[in-house]
Amino acid sequence: MRIAFYEDSNATHLGSIAQMRPVFEVVCGRYSLRERLTKFFHAERWGAFLRSHLAETYREGHPSAAVNDFIWLRDDETLLINGRWLPTADALANIQRDEVGLVNDTVVYLTLDPMEAALLAEDSWDDALHQIARTRGFMQVPGKLANRPWDVVKNNPQQLKDDRDFLAGKTDEQFEHFSGRSRTGDGKPPAIVGPAGEVSIHPNASLDPFVVIDTRQGPVTIDANAQIQAFTRLEGPCHIGRGSQLFRANVRSGTTIGAHCRVGGEVGQSILHSHVNKYHDGFLGHSYVCPWVNLGAMTTNSDLKNDYTPVKVPIAGELIDSHETKVGAFIGDHTKTALGSLFNTGSSIGVMSLVLPGGELLPKHIPSFSRVWHGELMDGWDLQRHLATAEIVMSRRDEILTPATRQLLHFLYDHTKVEREGAILRFRERAQRQPVSG
Asked: If you write DSSP's letter for every residue of 188-238 in order, what string do you get?
């Protein structure tokens, strides 16, 4: 059966981590939902239905996919899957074509007949989907929903465990269970604390002597061409993506480090999507960091309030109660932080923000294309200057800033103007109300 992923009207509730990608490309565990399910179903033909401003960049990255193509839906029966669903393998194996899968009150899948495709359109997707759903039987199904960005981070430890077996026999990935031999040719294998069978390492990965892998809480996977430097500690469940380099890092349980990242310091239950540079010391906890982010030396975030009360997070300028006590920072694509940046508990940082700290905690809400300059929140650089910086950064990793991505960034720059101006105004009003010491 063909499959197609879609975004519902709550996709924007994931904030900065989904500004430059559809929600089904947000990583949880070892994969995004799209990666996990196309592997699970061996899907050669699949579709994607997403916010219109993301369509061109998505077509560019996935030329074989049918993107926002409603005519394609009329060709054959298609399984529609909500991009915010984090399913179990059992839930997928037991999908029935004549039923609608629900998590609480949210539709997470249904099988679309070609004759029903005419009911769907970009501007009325949710209403049409629920109209079609009412013609089926309903079934509460296992799995979680990513309603907010902290849900992705909270579910990461369990998803890492589930991904160990999720694709058993369904993929040609060349992970090997740890055999006890050296991975550097010098006769000194990494030290394993816990069951050695929980360690899976790609044959092309390189581990120095004096690396410690702790599997007492879950599995550890290390992908192709990853390089793990001496005195690094990995606590499962965790995943190290292809081509990533770890430098004397302390990677705590529940962490995903995606492809081509450079990581040092302490990282606890966080997701580094891909192409993240956190080379230096500093703490990152219960956070999600998007591609092309550079965290300067000693950049650190808090993920627990002193009074242990639930954390509130600003999403698009609105303060949302997470009902969680452990919440870190959510950092959008291409953002840069300077030496000693200190993020408060539950911070939201947008796309292409620039952070120069002023020796104190940074604002919790830093909108896209803005900057913090010696403690003051203000407008960012001219957009062309942002784009020039992105070109330089990406070229250092043999990547290019494509015309479609440029167009998307132009759209986001205009789209976030009101949020940016409102945040700056509120910051200045608070600063004026603060008493002057002395």
From this structure: -PPEEES-GGGEEE-TT-EE-TT-EEE-SSS-EEE-TT-EE-TT-EEESSE
